[in-house]
Amino acid sequence: PCAVAALVALSFSGAIGLTFLMLGCALEYYGVYWPLFVLIFYFICPIPHFIAKRVGDDSDAASSACRELAYFFTTGIVVSAFGLPIILARVEAIKWGACGLVLAGNAVIFLTILGFFLVFGRGDDFSWEQW
Q1: Which residues of 2-26 are buried (b: 16+ CB within 10 A; e: fewer)?
Q2: Which domain of life, per UniProt (predicted)?
Q3: 3 DSSP assignment
Q4: Are 117 and 4 a contacting pair, CB within 8 Å?
């Protein structure tokens, strides 16, 4: 019921984000596929969280060093994903319009990833741990 609706909404927002990314690459006016390298950042973004969840202790402490290190690495990955298209536009490998579309896609995709962990990371009956 509620989890299924959340999954559908997250899928829809992920499709919107990827559409922005594809438009930044495939429109005839832009026609360069260098921005697709941000897909690497989308895939490696959750890895520090998974490692910290697996390695870290299960205590409900306010903070742990492992979790804070995972937040640090995740922040670096997200900032790099936003920085790559800006640098590509700055060196004129892509146009600034393509950069804007990729940045919009980045914002939507990373908010989708965050939403996925907020909705399914609670550890209740329907969680991502079952997948």
Answers
A1: eeeebeeebeebbeebbebbbbbbe
A2: Eukaryota
A3: H
A4: no
- Rounded CA separation 112/29 (Å): 28
Tokens matching residue 74:
């995740």
Which residue shows structure tokens 């390695």? 55
Residue located via tokens 């936003």 = 82
> Are 107 and 85 within 8 A, CB to CB?
no
CB neighbours of residue 129 within 10 Å: 10
Cα 27 versus chain centre, distance: 23
Going residue by residue through the chain, which has 131 residues, state the pLDDT in tens, using 9 for 90 and above. 577 888 899 999 999 999 999 999 888 888 889 999 999 999 999 999 888 888 866 666 666 888 899 999 999 999 999 999 999 999 999 999 999 999 999 999 999 999 998 888 766 555 455 55
**Which token pair is 110?**
């990373």
Helix (H, G, I), strand (E, B) or coil at 27: coil
CA–CA separation, 40 and 129 (whole Å): 23
